Structures are given as C-alpha cells and as structure tokens.
Amino acid sequence: MIKQLPIFLSGAGKRDVRTQFAALCYRVRKSKVQVLLITSRGTKRWIVPKGWPIDGLTPAACAEQEAWEEAGVQGRTDGRCLGIFSFSKDADDLGALPCLAMVYAVEVKTLAAEYPEVGQRRRKWMSRKKAARLVSEPELARILRDFDPPPLSGQT
C-alpha cells in the first residue's frame, strides 16, 4: 500500500478548478473484470462514484467513502491514482464549475443492500468496454478501457 497523507482543507476561490476523488469499483468473476457504474442523481447519466475531499482523509480513502455512500461498496484500494478526468459540475449559485477527478481502483468485497444513497441511484456491473461506451467523459472512458486491476486479492 502506498502511503498517502490526509487532506486538510483550506478555502478556495469560487471559480477555482475543484478536485474530486473517484472510485473505479471492480470485481473479477471467472477471470473477467467487471466494473460498477452508478447513475447520477440529476441527469441519470452513468458515472463512477466521486465526491469532494473530506477533511483528514487521504484521496484514496475519500474515493472509498464515496463508493460506500453512492453505491454501497465495501472494498479496498491500493492507494494509487489510475488517472484524472475533467468535467463540469453544476452549482446552483455559481453555474458550471470546472472539476478534475482523481480515480482510484476500489476492489469490491461486498455490495450492501442499504447505504446512504440507496433509492437515489441505480448501480450496474458491466464490462470495462461497455462502461467506457456509457460514460460521457472521454478521459474516464479511456481509464475504464485501459484498466488492469492491481493484484490485491490474488484473484485471476
């Protein structure tokens, strides 16, 4: 596991580029890699769980927390960033904010039936190739297509 330092938040300008942390949730079944996509709450687009930094947590731990809150994922990451993708986030009072999301692989151990955002999103397992076709962000599509799981659990 790579050692990361926790994040300590300080004020940012309202128009500054914002950073979020995303979870590429995956499992290996019969030697096939599957990724878990969820729908966004507003537009119902297919996305990966992601969210804002959480004071005192590492970026990888933030990604794990978002995976839990948005998809009911209980899993673990090795702490390595797989890549970054850009997107715009609509903020009611500010319009579209430019954002970057750092993506961390989260190996799914279990999926909970009850979790904070159950009923607000759909979740679905699919191949990397299909997931890459369904997401809107080209950089995220590339990360999904090229994803090769780290050997966390010894699965093949």
TrEMBL record:
Pfam families according to UniProt: NUDIX
Coiled coil: none
GO MF annotation terms: hydrolase activity
Cofactor(s) required, per the database record: Mg(2+)
The entry's keywords: Hydrolase, Magnesium, Metal-binding
Keyword Metal-binding in record: yes
Domain Nudix hydrolase: 18-148
PROSITE patterns: NUDIX
Entry-linked PANTHER family: DIPHOSPHOINOSITOL POLYPHOSPHATE PHOSPHOHYDROLASE, DIPHOSPHOINOSITOL-POLYPHOSPHATE DIPHOSPHATASE
Name this polypeptide is given: NUDIX hydrolase
The organism's taxonomic lineage, starting at the top: Bacteria, Pseudomonadati, Pseudomonadota, Alphaproteobacteria, Rhodobacterales
